[in-house]
Write a structure and sequence with these properties.
Order of helices and strands: EEHEHEEEEEHEEHHE
Helix content: 10-25%
Structural class: alpha+beta
Mean pLDDT: 85
Strand order of the largest sheet: 2-6-7-3
Number of strands: 11
Oligomer: single chain
Strand content: 25-35%
Number of domains: 2
Distance between the termini: 32 Å
Low-confidence stretches: 148-175
Length: 175
């Protein structure tokens, strides 16, 4: 079991990126996928994509983020990756319907983003539960459920760029 009490940095940090890249090529890179709500938890037991157990015991001032480096030695590294939610994509019929939809989503405190004229709602629970809450708008024809989110609503976007625009995305590749 790996006991982690501090965050060593971010994978996008230039000082760590080269080491992480080398470790990845040697097969020593492990990842832990966390939801947004789990990112806020300071104490938890995690399992990496390779089955290693990580006991996370962080101080209150520590903040997990996408790309946080939890473990780093000569042969192994453990990174946190944000497990992005799935999205419910909606299209309002007109401006008044869009205003009503936006007002309703805001009152529900749903996390949203926009894809052109579409409203994308991050699903923190079953899709059907959201559709039930939106039934009054859907049944009146004010809102249409879209099947495709489009390229900007990708449910698995790349991690955000760190300082200097460096983006570390672990992908298998060869030289």
């Amino acid at each position: 079991m790996l006991r982690v009490t501090t965050i060593l940095g971010c994978a996008a940090d230039a000082a760590l990126a080269d080491r992480l890249h080398d470790i990845e090529h040697r097969g020593g890179l492990e990842t832990v996928r966390l939801s947004r709500s789990d990112m806020a938890r300071r104490r938890q037991q995690l399992r990496t994509d390779r089955g290693s157990v990580v006991a996370l015991m962080l101080d209150r001032d520590a903040t997990l983020q996408n790309g946080s480096v939890l473990w780093l030695d000569d042969d192994r590294a453990v990174l946190v990756l944000l497990d992005e939610p799935h999205w419910l994509v909606l299209q309002a019929g007109n401006a008044a319907d869009a205003l009503e939809l936006g007002y309703f989503a805001g009152n529900m405190h749903w996390k949203v983003r926009f894809d052109g004229e579409r409203l994308c709602i991050a699903l923190d629970g079953p899709r059907e539960a959201y559709l039930q809450r939106l039934a009054h708008l859907i049944q009146r024809g004010c809102v249409q459920v879209c099947d495709e989110a489009g390229p900007s609503a990708d449910p698995h976007p790349a991690p955000p760029a760190g300082p200097g625009g460096v983006r570390y995305i672990p992908v298998p590749h060869a030289h």
